[in-house]
Amino acid sequence: MSSSGRGTRSERPTGPLRQETTDFPVRGALHCADVPRPGPVGASLAPPTGPARLLERRPVLLRTLRTRLRPHRRAVVLLALLQLLQILATLALPSLGAAVIDNGVLKADSGYIVQLGLGMLALAVLQIAASMGAVSLSARTAMAMGRDLRSAVFRRVLDFSAREVGEFGTPSLMTRTVNDVQQVQMLALSAFGVVVSAPLMCLGSIALALQQDIPLALLLVVLMVAVGICFGLILGRTDPFYDRMQNYLDRVNGLLRERITGVRVVRAFVRDGHESERFGRTNSELCDVSLHVGRLLATIVPVVLLVLNAFMAAVVWFGAHRIDAGAMRFGALSAFLSYLTLITMSVVMVTFVCLAMPRARVSAERIQQVLTTEPSVTAPPRPVRTAPATGQLELRGAGFRYPGAAEPVLSGIDLSAGPGETVAILGSTGSGKTTLLNLVLRHFDATEGHVRVGGVDVRELDAQTLRRTVGFVPQRAYLFSGTVASNLRFGNPDASDEALWHALDIAQARDFVERLPAGLDAPITQGGTNVSGGQRQRLAIARTLLRRPDVYLFDDCFSALDNATDVALRAALAPEIAGATVLTVAQRVSTVQHAQRIVVLDGGRVAATGTHRELLRTSAAYRDIAQSQLNSSNGDFDAPAQRAASAPTPQEAVHGRGGQL
User: Which InterPro entries match (predicted)?
Assistant: First the structure.
């Protein structure tokens, strides 16, 4: 985040998405089981909205599944055919078994028994083969769908600007990309075994049961209605709580990430207990909601089994009376019980799918929020792929305002720089320095005015062209997990080892890399936490140098270096970037006083422009900054300026002392 962002953070709208990752009032203590609750679970949250909410939200999940399964339609059709073959074989077995009993066993016809027995064996083999094929194909299809959905979410996140990432929050985006996609994927895997087989098995069992005995088959119709009512009542109560579970999961991830990344600060201020309590309270809320949902879902299987067993007892009782009255054959009752068992199996399969459906529905909605959010920074319809004015940088009346903010972060910025020119931007915290660089990089789009690179508005430039033209070294350098070489080659994937060592030489990083046991192949952890802040910064500078862009943006990236390293790096850097346009952000006067031009930002506007000597005479804001940093209380800045100018500087080595103090 830019310095301006830090200074104006309160002006940024949070929005409903950002609220998922902010701090919030919670109840409970470190262990949810040990704490008395002031009210029912979720009382502090929005009340459940009932079955109407279920009907309203169902199309989101169905649309997600339909869209993501469309590329796998052949596999889905083949899966349906295999399940159809399996169900037909399964449904035929009870009827054949009834015929064996009535016409073979009771009549002692061994030939008939052997004949039908071989047929039943063939059907059983066919059923097993079709079932194994369906299970294998469903697993492969579900995994492929999850892979594609995860990739789609990841690609959309990569397209987001800093604004969208800030609105969702990093922990929430991580949860949506991994956990939410997994929930939809697991539902698809469960549904593949049910969507065709369960309806066909239920309807086929009822149809074949009607052939055996019509009055008794009516019990099956009543059974299906009773089970459907049970499902509707229970699932209608659980669905709203899944929203809360996923939101709490976002918050737990956010607190955990914050605790891990800030572990040194937490320990330095002895805040371990406080952070554990914060995490424990959030974890307690997640535990409460999860237990509440678990208790509701735990009632489904017992209730369904109770209903099924009651109906099975009723079938046996009524069937025995009908057999005793001569209205039903014994084989028909045996087949009837087999069909009831098949219906029971179908209901159990549907139960597991229904258990996964509410959470998958919430996850699908959260995924769709990401996929349907359009980036605020979009590619131009006809991008310009070649910048005619190489190295030319220009801002004309440029400004930026966060959506809904009362005041702009930047306003009316006029600035230009050309090849071989170094322009420094100086200002207090919150003055908009880093935001200005973000406009050049098109991390944000200017809300007023124009930003041009190479003579072309950045909104019309091809993104790859802009990235090749502009090299950026952030204030807080970030390294990726891998090796020193792999991190450096982010700047130029085709760079040779010699080019890497040359860039390390310029960035004053060669010495410490050579001391590493594996040199260029030395491992780097995520974020570069196994090297110091200054070493990370030097590696980031070397990475940018390998790109050899036309425009360099340095965002106060020398602040982590000691004075000796700073001076040596600048001296080595000057001839390396002599023909490029350089825009450097700084807070220290000593680092910018030899720039050809200094732009002073104050409150998001250009307060003054000139050389160090000119600004000391004409700009009160610059004079105040210089006084506070150069420890000159008598207002005589010439002496410290002359002392600072007595030694040769990188800029003087390239441009001479013209315009310098």
Answer: AAA+_ATPase, ABC1_TM_dom, ABC1_TM_sf, ABC_transporter-like_ATP-bd, ABC_transporter-like_CS, P-loop_NTPase, Type_1_exporter
Check which CATH number belongs to the domain holding 576 and give it. 3.40.50.300
List b or e across 335-362, with b for residues whose CB sees 16 or more CB atoms inside 10 angstroms: bbbbbbebbbbbbebbbebbbbbbbbbb
Distance CA 345, CA 348 (A): 5
Residue 252 and residue 290 in contact, taking contact as beta carbons nearer than 8 Å: no
pLDDT at residue 102, rounded to an integer: 66
Among 138-147, 279-288, 301-310, 462-471, whose mean pLDDT is lowest?
301-310
Q: Are 297 and 353 in contact, with CB atoms under 8 Å apart?
A: no
Q: With H, G, I as helix, E, B as strand and everything else as coil, classify residue 58.
A: helix
In one letter, which amino acid is 410? Answer: L
* CB 245, CB 359: distance < 8 Å: yes
Average pLDDT for residues 539-565, to the nearest whole number? 89
The SS3 assignment for 407 reads: coil
Percent of the chain predicted with pLDDT > 90: 20
User: 214 pairs with which residues across the strands?
Assistant: none
Least Cα distance to 649 among 568, 544, 585 occurs for 568
| Position 47 in a domain | no
Predicted TM-score of the model (pTM): 0.65
Same domain, 401 and 493: yes
Domain membership of residue 593 as a residue range? 393-637
Give the count of domains, the chain: 2
CATH number at residue 87: 1.20.1560.10
Q: Are residues 363 and 412 in the same domain?
A: no
